[in-house]
Automatic annotation (TrEMBL):
It comes from the Bacteria. The lineage of its organism: Bacteria, Bacillati, Bacillota, Clostridia, Halanaerobiales. GO terms for biological process: DNA transposition. InterPro entries: RNaseH-like_sf, Transposase_11. GO terms for molecular function: DNA binding; transposase activity. Residues 164-345 form the Transposase IS4-like domain. This is Transposase family protein.
Length: 396
């Protein structure tokens, strides 16, 4: 690109940087690169490729690739901004509105194409992992993600690449639980059956959080002191042992067990079936809640909020290119994920008012277009010829 390329100021991004003290931790060139990534990230058709970022930069894509893979800047500061901003906003909102807090855990796979045996520089740290989305084992990176939700606000808190040579996913979630501050209101960790284990439950209990999670149907419970698996126990449940509840517009037959499980002293287990599938073993779903004071309807409604993390995965892949990157070094890949989540933070609570991510992206795009138009108008007002303006924008 031309060295004369001019990037009009984006006042919202500048304000976001000022409020989070970016200038204290990054040089002007690094700040410029990060700003350009955000501008590219909110643009339509972004896929996290260096060519996409180069559309908003005076630098060639190779320079951007060097910034990601070898640049002298600390991405850990951005990670801390994301964590602190998400925590502060969610906790304040929950306290001021008397709303519960939900910590959501799940993982997804960024699938990549299997490299040729002749490839000289394949993407680093890829591994074969099971994809629940496709129902098969694929090559890629597995991403362990944590989100915080209060009210209608869903904020990304942490994203880590799972490396089977390092900590297990269970231990990683326990570390996150131990790092959480004491919540100002009732708070719940939500997860699927993979993470529903005593180690995570106890880690959260020590910090004042309850847990709600899906249960595998082979988990052991002890009704009236009898040791039995959930699926076998369900065979003895009759219509007189269940009642209907409505959750998010759908009806379910539910049965409540309260007591101990292996390594869990006391909890509620909810067995549920869709209204038209009672006693259908394939339709049976089981959920555990450590707050025994909650009723069945509330437990199921709270667990349904876990769907927000699935929405995050879908939006991040479709809008931010979570799985579309083409850089090959693992350092560059880890940094791209950090910057993608910075875009997510900017579009949720970094604009003039908090909003859902999808709406925030549209608002950020409109603001960016408006500033380009205003800048071009100012060029015209000050007598700068059109050809010069086009050259400055590298579109001559």
């Amino acid at each position: 690109m031309s060295n004369n390329f001019i990037l009009p100021d984006n006042k919202l991004i500048d304000k976001f940087f000022d409020e989070n003290n970016f200038n204290l931790y990054y040089s002007k060139p690094a700040l410029k690169h990060i700003k350009e990534f955000i501008l590219a990230g909110i643009s339509k058709g972004f896929s996290s490729k260096t060519t996409d970022i180069a559309e908003y930069s005076e630098n060639h894509r190779t320079t951007i690739g060097h910034f990601l893979s070898k640049g002298n800047w600390n991405e850990e500061f951005i990670k801390e901004i994301i964590k602190n901003q998400s925590l502060e906003f969610s906790f304040d909102y929950a306290k001021n509105n008397d709303e519960p807090i939900f910590i959501l855990h799940d993982d997804t796979v960024s699938e990549k194409t299997k490299p040729s045996s002749q490839a000289k520089s394949p993407i680093e740290k890829t591994d074969f992992c099971y994809s629940h989305l496709t129902g098969r084992t694929v090559l890629g990176h597995q991403l362990l993600t944590t989100m915080i939700q209060s009210g209608e606000h869903n904020l990304v808190y942490d994203l880590q690449r799972y490396d089977r040579e390092g900590k297990s996913k269970i231990d990683t979630v326990c570390d996150i639980a131990e790092s959480m501050p004491t919540p100002p209101t009732n708070a719940y960790a939500l997860f699927d059956s993979w993470y529903n284990c005593p180690k995570i439950i106890n880690a959260y209990a020590k910090k004042g959080y309850h847990c709600i999670g899906a249960l595998k149907r082979n988990r052991i419970i002890y009704p009236k002191g009898i040791r039995i698996g959930i699926s076998d126990y369900a065979k003895y449940i009759q219509k007189s042992d269940v009642h209907l509840v409505t959750v998010n517009g759908s009806e379910y037959w539910v049965h409540r067990y309260e007591g101990n499980l292996n390594n869990i002293e006391n909890a509620v287990v909810i067995l549920s079936w869709p209204v038209d599938a009672f006693k259908n073993s394939k339709a049976l779903r089981a959920f555990l809640c450590t707050n025994v004071s909650l009723d069945e309807k509330t437990i199921l409604e709270y667990y349904s909020k876990r769907w927000s993390i699935e929405v995050y995965f879908r939006q991040s892949k479709r809008i931010l290119g979570l799985d579309k990157y083409q850089v090959r070094s693992i350092k560059a890949i880890d940094r791209i994920w950090v910057l993608q989540n910075l875009v997510y933070l900017f579009c949720t609570i970094g604009l003039d008012k908090p909003m859902k991510f999808g709406r925030g992206v549209l608002e950020a795009r409109k603001h960016s277009k408006r500033e380009y138009i205003e800048w071009i108008y100012e060029c015209a007002q000050t007598g700068i010829p059109l050809n010069t303006t086009l050259e400055l924008l590298n579109v001559a």
